[in-house]
Design a protein that fits this description.
Layout lengths: L3 H23 L7 E2 L3 H4 L1 H7 L5 H4 L11 E4 L4 E5 L5 E4 L5 H7 L6 H4 L1 E2 L7 E2 L5 E9 L1 H4 L9 H22 L4 E7 L4 E10 L1 E7 L2 H4 L3 H4 L11 E7 L13 E2 L8 E2 L8 E6 L10 H30 L3 H6 L1 H23 L2 H17 L2 H7 L2 H12 L3 H12 L3 H12 L8 H20 L3 H18 L8 H9 L3 H11 L5 H9 L3 H6 L1 H17 L2 H20 L14 E6 L3 E4 L2 E3 L2 E3 L1 H6 L11 H9 L13 E6 L11 E3 L5 E8 L17 E5 H11 L3 H5 L3 E2 L2 H6 L3 H10 L4
Parallel strand pairs: 13-23
Antiparallel strand pairs: 1-15, 2-3, 2-7, 3-4, 4-11, 5-10, 6-10, 7-9, 8-9, 10-11, 11-12, 14-15, 14-20, 16-17, 18-19, 19-22, 20-21, 21-22
C-alpha cells in the first residue's frame, strides 16, 4: 500500500511531466514559411498534434475547394487578403488599401481621415489599377527545368538552359488554360523550381475603411511595436462577369462567388492556442552568410535609413503646410517610413542577437563537414569563398547601389515616372498599330496616377535634396552619367537643373504629356531632361547587377544552400519567401522582451484610452469611438471578462507581404488579421528568433465590432458567416463533461 507521501510525489511527477509535454507541443515557436503542397509530407502530423483539426487536403487540394481558395494576394504580391463571404467580400489591412483610400480622398471628402462605409453595392468605389490573384495549383518542375543542366556548365550557360525550359513550360501552360497565368519560380536559391498557376481579377471595389485614427492608430511611433492598439483593416469586394470570370470594370459585373470563403469565429484567443497564417510573404534571407550580415550592418541598412530619413523630412515639410499635399503624399510617406524604421530595427536586432556570430558558427560547422569528405569539398567547397569574395568586392559599391535606387529612381515621383515613360514610349513608334495603341493606353494610365498625386513644388524639393546628397556622398566613378551634365552646364547645382527640367519637361504637365502621346517625337523624348536623368539612373542601377560579381553571389548562395541541406538531411527545410503562398503555424503567446519586462498576449480597448493624445496626430481618438468605448457596449464581441480585445500576438513566422493574412484557428476559422512584426525580432528576415519573434494581429472581434457598432454597417455583418464558438459550447456542458473538452483543446 502506497503512503500518502508517495502518492503525492507521483501526482507531482505526473503534473510536471504533463506540463513538460504541454510546453513541448504548444509553447514551441515554429519557424518556417511552408509551401502548401509540402504540408501533407512534412507538417500535417505536427500541426494536428499542436491543435489543427483539419487535414492537409482541407488546406490545399487539387480536387476540392479548400482554404487556399479563400486567400488571395493583392497587386501582384504587395499584401495578402481573404474572402469572408459568398459575395466576394474581401478583408485586408488598412495599410494594404491605404493607396486606394488615399486616392478617393479629397480635402472636401477626406475618407482617409473620416472613414468610409458602403451601405449598398451601389456605393462601393471601383479602384483603378488594382487586382487580386487566386492560386490555382502548384507543381514541382525541378527535374524538367534542370534536365539539360550539367555540373561543368558555366553560370551563364546554366541560366540560359534553365530559362529556355521555363519559357517552354509557361507557354505550354498558357496554351492549356489561356485564362490562367503560369509562373515558374526558383526555390532554395536555384536548386528547385515550382510552377504556380494563377488567376487574376481586376474589378475590385472599396467597400469600407475605418477612420485613419483607428486604421493607423499609433502611426510611425507604434509601427513594429508591441503592445499595439491598431484597427488595421479595410474591406474590398471582387467583381466578375455573370459567369464568375475575370472582367474589366463594368456596371454589369456581379459580386464574385468564391469557391471557398472563411467563416468568422468570435471565440477569441488564449495563451497557447494553435494558430496558422496563410499568405504571400515577400522576401527572406534565412540562408544569408555571415559576410552578408556584416555588409547589411555596416553599409546597406545605414544607407537606406540615411536616404529615407532625408526623404521623410522633405515630404513632411510640405505636408504640414498644405492639406492637399498631406492627402496626396500620405501613402508615399507611409511606405517610405515603414522600411525606414524596419532597417533601423533590423540592425539593432542583428547586433543584439549576435546573428553574425551564429552565422559564422554555422559556417565553421559547414567547413568542417566539407573537409571530412573529398566529394563534399568538390561539390560545395567553393561556396563560402565565392560569397566572401563577392562581399569584399561589393563593399565599396553597395552604398552607390542603394543611392541609385533610393535617392535616384524612387527618390522623387518624376524620376520613376520618367523611367517608365522612357521605356514604354518605344512602343509608340511601332509600325504595328495595335502595339502603338496599347503603348499609348498604358502611358495614359500611368500618367493619370502620376498627376493625381503629384505636387510639383514637393517633387522638385525632393529631387534637389536627394540628388544633391547623392552627388555629395557617392564617389564620382559610381555616379550616373548625367551628373557630369549637371557639373558642366549647371555648376553642380541640382536646383538650377530642376529650374529648367520641371517647367520644360513634357512629363510635368498633363497637356504637354498628352500632346506627346498623341504625336510622339523621338527627338523630344531624347532631349527631355527628366527622361535623360531617369535613363541615366536606371543604367547605373542595372550596372551593379550586371557585373561578374553578381554571378559569384548567385552561385555561392546556391551551393551554400544545397550544402547546408545536405549536411542536415533530417532537418525540415523550408525555402526562403519569394511572394508565393505559404503557411506558417505556431501558438498565441506572451513574451519577455527584456529584463524585468513582460508583455501579455493581448491588448484591450483600455489601451486606446490610455494612449489618447489629441494633440498628437498619431494618437487622436475618434469622438464616436471614444464614446462607444467608454460605454463598454461590446456585445457578443467582448471576451469572458467583458473587455474588447484589440490585438494579439503569436509566434507565427511571417514577413512583408503577409500583411492582411488571415490568422486561423485549428478549425480553419478566422480569428485575426496579421499586420506587423515586433521590434525585438526585426532581424527575423535573416534569422528566426523563437524566444522573441512575434506576429502582431488585429483581433477579428475588434474588426467586427467596428463594422457593427461604430459603422452601423449591418448589411456587411449580415453577409458574414459567424461560427458557433466551441469554447462556449463546452461551458454549457455538465460540469463533469466540460473538463475533457478543455483537455482536448490543449489543457488550458
Amino acid at each position: 500500500m502506497q503512503t500518502t507521501n508517495n502518492i503525492m510525489k507521483q501526482r507531482i511527477f505526473l503534473l510536471l511531466f504533463a506540463a513538460f509535454q504541454l510546453a513541448a507541443t504548444t509553447a514551441r515557436a515554429d519557424e518556417g514559411m511552408w509551401l502548401l503542397h509540402m504540408l501533407q509530407r512534412i507538417n500535417e502530423a505536427e500541426m494536428q498534434q499542436m491543435g489543427l483539426n483539419l487535414s492537409a487536403e482541407d488546406i490545399y487540394s487539387l480536387n476540392q475547394a479548400c482554404l487556399k481558395d479563400a486567400v488571395i494576394t493583392l497587386n501582384g504580391g504587395s499584401c495578402t487578403a481573404e474572402i469572408i463571404s459568398d459575395q466576394g467580400l474581401v478583408l485586408t489591412n488598412h495599410h494594404c488599401a491605404y493607396g486606394a483610400i488615399q486616392g478617393f480622398s479629397t480635402v472636401e471628402d477626406d475618407i482617409l481621415t473620416n472613414g468610409f462605409w458602403a451601405m449598398s453595392l451601389d456605393e462601393e468605389k471601383p479602384i483603378p489599377d488594382f487586382s487580386v490573384t487566386f492560386l490555382q495549383r502548384i507543381e514541382d518542375v525541378t527535374e524538367r527545368v534542370l534536365a539539360d543542366v550539367t555540373s561543368d556548365m558555366d553560370d551563364s550557360d546554366r541560366e540560359a538552359a534553365i530559362q529556355a525550359v521555363i519559357s517552354q513550360i509557361e507557354e505550354e501552360e498558357k496554351g492549356i488554360s489561356p485564362d490562367f497565368r503560369p509562373q515558374i519560380k526558383s526555390f532554395y536559391h536555384g536548386n528547385e523550381f515550382y510552377l504556380f498557376v494563377y488567376r487574376d481579377y481586376t474589378d475590385i471595389r472599396l467597400v469600407g475603411n475605418p477612420p485613419e485614427s483607428i486604421g493607423k492608430f499609433g502611426g510611425d511611433t507604434d509601427n513594429w511595436m508591441w503592445p499595439r492598439h491598431t484597427g488595421d483593416f479595410s474591406l474590398l469586394r471582387i467583381y466578375s462577369d455573370a459567369d464568375g470570370n475575370p472582367a474589366d470594370f463594368s456596371e454589369d459585373n456581379k459580386p464574385y462567388t468564391p469557391k471557398r470563403h472563411l467563416k468568422v469565429s468570435l471565440e477569441g484567443v488564449e495563451n497557447g492556442d494553435f494558430t496558422m497564417i496563410m499568405g504571400y510573404p515577400g522576401s527572406t534571407d534565412r540562408f544569408l552568410s555571415s559576410h552578408g550580415v556584416q555588409q547589411a550592418l555596416d553599409l546597406y541598412n545605414p544607407s537606406v535609413v540615411e536616404v529615407r530619413d532625408l526623404k521623410l523630412k522633405t515630404m513632411k515639410s510640405h505636408m504640414d503646410v498644405d492639406p492637399a499635399v498631406r492627402i496626396q503624399y500620405a501613402a508615399k510617406y507611409a511606405q517610405t517610413a515603414n522600411y525606414w524604421k524596419y532597417y533601423i530595427g533590423q540592425s539593432k536586432g542583428l547586433k543584439a542577437l549576435d546573428v553574425y556570430g551564429k552565422k559564422k558558427a554555422l559556417e565553421d560547422e559547414f567547413s568542417a563537414w566539407m573537409g571530412s569528405s573529398a566529394d563534399r569539398k568538390k561539390e560545395y567547397g567553393a561556396a563560402l569563398g565565392m560569397l566572401k569574395t563577392y562581399y569584399e568586392n561589393t563593399n565599396a559599391t553597395v552604398k552607390g547601389q542603394v543611392y541609385s535606387l533610393e535617392a535616384g529612381l524612387i527618390g522623387c515621383d518624376l524620376m520613376l515616372f520618367a523611367f517608365r515613360v522612357g521605356m514604354g514610349a518605344q512602343g509608340l513608334f511601332s509600325e504595328d498599330a495595335d502595339r502603338a495603341a496599347a503603348a499609348a493606353a498604358s502611358l495614359r494610365g500611368r500618367a493619370e496616377g502620376f498627376f493625381k498625386d503629384y505636387d510639383q513644388e514637393t517633387d522638385r524639393d525632393l529631387f534637389v535634396q536627394l540628388m544633391t546628397k547623392y552627388m555629395q556622398d557617392i564617389a564620382p566613378d559610381q555616379q550616373p552619367a548625367y551628373f557630369e551634365t549637371v557639373r558642366s552646364k549647371y555648376k553642380g547645382d541640382f536646383a538650377r537643373y530642376a529650374d529648367k527640367m520641371y517647367p520644360k519637361s513634357f512629363l510635368t504637365d498633363p497637356e504637354r504629356f498628352e500632346a506627346f502621346v498623341a504625336d510622339p517625337d523621338q527627338k523630344a523624348l531624347d532631349k527631355d531632361l527628366a527622361v535623360a536623368a531617369a535613363m541615366s539612373l536606371i543604367e547605373t542601377y542595372r550596372g551593379y547587377f550586371a557585373s561578374p560579381e553578381q554571378g559569384k553571389f548567385d552561385k555561392g548562395y546556391r551551393l551554400l544552400t544545397a550544402g547546408l541541406r545536405a549536411m542536415n538531411p533530417d532537418k525540415k527545410w523550408y525555402p526562403d519567401a519569394n511572394s508565393t503562398m505559404r503557411l506558417s503555424y505556431g501558438t498565441v503567446g506572451d513574451y519577455d522582451p527584456a529584463d524585468a519586462v513582460h508583455y501579455d498576449f493581448v491588448t484591450t480597448s483600455d489601451g486606446i484610452l490610455q494612449k489618447k493624445d489629441n494633440s498628437n496626430p498619431e494618437f487622436v481618438v475618434d469622438g464616436t469611438l471614444e464614446t462607444l468605448l467608454r460605454k463598454r457596449d461590446f456585445g457578443r464581441y467582448a471576451d469572458d471578462e467583458g473587455d474588447l480585445v484589440l490585438c494579439f500576438i503569436s509566434n507565427n513566422d511571417i514577413t512583408g507581404g503577409n500583411s492582411g493574412s488571415p490568422v486561423l484557428n485549428g478549425n480553419g476559422d478566422l480569428i485575426g488579421l496579421a499586420f506587423d512584426g515586433n521590434w525585438e525580432a526585426m532581424s527575423g528576415d535573416i534569422a528566426f528568433e523563437p524566444e522573441l519573434q512575434r506576429t502582431i494581429s488585429v483581433d477579428i472581434r475588434y474588426v467586427m465590432w467596428v463594422i457593427d457598432k461604430m459603422a452601423g454597417a449591418q448589411n456587411l455583418i449580415d453577409e458574414i458567416d459567424f461560427v458557433t464558438a466551441s469554447k462556449e459550447a463546452a461551458k454549457e456542458l455538465p460540469k463533469d463533461m466540460a473538463q475533457p473538452v478543455e483537455d482536448m483543446e490543449g489543457g488550458r
